[in-house]
């Protein structure tokens, strides 16, 4: 098992700049940042390093007490879960707004459950309480430090004025943080992870699926479409493999969301697909295939990723016990619709599941494992040449009186498997004949779940006169 890195959790009320500071610490833009309260809802994890010390940073949603909104309650629960695993908690406040009653409420909740710098010397070594730093964000210039002083009234010890946006004071804060972090285990297992992007339309059950896979309430789940706004990473161990599950915001049509928060959500989801090896396209089985599902699946295909369909909410169609394996008439009908309406993804297998009932989860992951294995499949040059020559012999192709000749074939790369054919004239290769050759390759080799690419180049070989 990989050693658990020390954990630094950022908490605070909405719109104090938690995501901005998170991005600053990890040195890349991962969390969505917008001047709208409540943008971050789930816990967002990323790895950071300072002076050679690696640690995990966790961004949380804005905490507000006294609200009955179910989503606000789930955000508080998510933040609480994060704080329970923390070694350091950064209690973020806002120098522009000054001391706020919500800051006082959160300070009272943290008091006694954390250790302030002043209490560090008297802490019992066996006591498991995280270190607490009061961080006053938006201290963009020295004049704001005077305003920041009022946060001493929280009674939580020293304060650290910073500007997450401009970086002022962040280096000093990180020096203090790494000085108190426990050491990580240098003998950690560094097995390669399988990045799996979980994509789909809003409200098809992507976050519910992550929660079902991991067995914990890792993601906020709500009937409100668009609850997930960042691309969230979760590590899962299964059959000796380590998956990095990347839950993404529901993808909507770009033209309808330009200039909104959702524009950035779509952008993050597409970036998540780019860094994944496989895309798990989640479809709402209660609704069937929609135009949005087709568009999203094609994004993964165009990106050259392995692809698997997860037909979620299948318990609304058939009993959960029947989800995993046998192909009922209902399943066959939906699979035929997917094949007919997205023919370019005919290679993508489908697994039927119900995240709500935790049914059919293992078949989904088993199908992903096969797709990822095939994504790295390599064919020997000899096998490939024999296959292509037999295919050309069985079905010759002629255009404008000139026959297409394939002199040599080779696989040039994997992930996805990519082949190059050297021919007498590349202009003779019609897309229908290219598809024929690709289908012959698929019939001969186990390439379910992965796209394959074919490039055609002119051979330097001269034909006899």
Describe the structure.
The chain has 465 residues and is of the alpha/beta class. Helix content is 31%, strand content 21%. The protein is built from 12 helices and 17 strands. It has helices spanning 18-26, 70-84, 101-110, 143-148, 170-180, 206-214, 261-274, 291-302, 329-341, 361-375, 381-394, 431-444; strands spanning 7-11, 44-50, 53-59, 88-94, 131-137, 159-161, 193-200, 232-238, 241-247, 278-284, 306-312, 350-352, 398-399, 402-403, 406-413, 418-423, 453-458. It has a 6-stranded mixed sheet with strand order 2-3-1-4-5-6, with helices on both faces. A 6-stranded mixed sheet has the order 8-9-7-10-11-12, with helices on both faces. Strand 8 (232-238) and strand 9 form a beta hairpin. Helix 11 crosses helix 12 (431-444). The longest helix has 15 residues, at 70-84. The relative contact order is 0.09.
Number of strands: 17
Number of helices: 12
| Helix fraction bin | 25-40%
Determine Rg (CA atoms, Å): 27 Å
Task: Report the principal-axis shape.
Answer: elongated
Which strands sit side by side, in order, in the main sheet? 2-3-1-4-5-6
Write the layout of secondary structure elements.
Layout: E1 7-11, H1 18-26, E2 44-50, E3 53-59, H2 70-84, E4 88-94, H3 101-110, E5 131-137, H4 143-148, E6 159-161, H5 170-180, E7 193-200, H6 206-214, E8 232-238, E9 241-247, H7 261-274, E10 278-284, H8 291-302, E11 306-312, H9 329-341, E12 350-352, H10 361-375, H11 381-394, E13 398-399, E14 402-403, E15 406-413, E16 418-423, H12 431-444, E17 453-458
Parallel strand pairs: 1-3, 1-4, 4-5, 5-6, 7-9, 7-10, 10-11, 11-12, 16-17
Antiparallel strand pairs: 2-3, 8-9, 13-14, 15-16
């Amino acid at each position: 098992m990989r050693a658990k890195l020390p954990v630094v959790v950022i908490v605070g009320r909405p719109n104090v700049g938690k995501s901005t500071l998170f991005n600053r610490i990890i040195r890349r833009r991962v969390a969505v940042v917008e001047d709208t309260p409540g943008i971050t809802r789930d816990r967002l994890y990323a790895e950071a390093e300072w002076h050679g010390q690696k640690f995990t940073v966790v961004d949380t949603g804005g905490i507000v007490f006294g609200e009955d909104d179910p989503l606000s309650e789930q955000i508080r629960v998510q933040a609480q879960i994060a704080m329970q695993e923390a070694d350091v908690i950064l209690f973020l406040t806002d120098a522009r707004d000054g001391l706020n009653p919500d800051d006082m409420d959160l300070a009272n909740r943290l008091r006694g459950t954390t250790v302030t710098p002043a209490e560090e010397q008297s802490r019992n070594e066996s006591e498991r309480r995280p270190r607490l730093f009061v961080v006053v964000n938006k201290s963009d210039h020295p004049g704001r430090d005077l305003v920041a002083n009022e946060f001493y009234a929280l009674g939580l010890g020293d304060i650290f004025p910073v500007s997450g946006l401009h970086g002022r004071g962040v280096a000093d804060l990180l020096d203090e943080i790494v000085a108190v972090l426990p050491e990580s285990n240098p003998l950690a297992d560094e097995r390669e992870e399988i990045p799996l992007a979980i994509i789909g339309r809003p409200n098809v059950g992507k976050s519910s699926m992550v929660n079902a896979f991991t067995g914990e309430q890792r993601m906020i789940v709500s009937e409100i479409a668009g609850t997930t706004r960042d691309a969230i990473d979760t590590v899962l161990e299964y059959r000796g493999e380590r998956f990095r599950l990347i839950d993404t915001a529901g993808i909507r049509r770009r033209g309808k969301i330009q200039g909104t928060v959702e524009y950035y959500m779509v952008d993050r989801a597409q970036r998540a697909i780019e860094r994944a090896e496989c895309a798990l396209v989640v479809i709402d089985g209660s609704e069937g295939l929609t135009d949005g599902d087709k568009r999203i699946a094609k994004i993964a295909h165009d990106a050259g990723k392995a692809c698997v369909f997860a037909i979620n909410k299948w318990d609304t169609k058939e009993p959960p016990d029947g989800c995993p394996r046998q192909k009922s008439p209902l399943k066959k009908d939906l699979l035929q619709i997917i094949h007919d309406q997205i023919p370019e993804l005919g290679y993508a297998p489908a697994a039927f599941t119900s995240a709500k009932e935790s049914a059919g989860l293992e078949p989904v992951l088993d199908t992903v494992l096969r797709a990822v294995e095939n994504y790295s499949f390599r064919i020997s040059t000899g096998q490939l040449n024999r296959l292509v020559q037999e295919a050309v012999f069985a079905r010759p192709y002629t255009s404008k009186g000139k026959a297409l000749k394939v002199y040599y074939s080779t696989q040039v790369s994997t992930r996805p498997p990519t082949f190059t054919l050297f021919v007498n004239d590349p202009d003779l290769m019609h897309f229908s004949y290219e598809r024929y050759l690709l289908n012959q390759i698929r019939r001969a080799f186990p390439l379910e779940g992965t796209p394959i690419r074919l490039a055609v180049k002119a051979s330097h070989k001269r034909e006899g006169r």
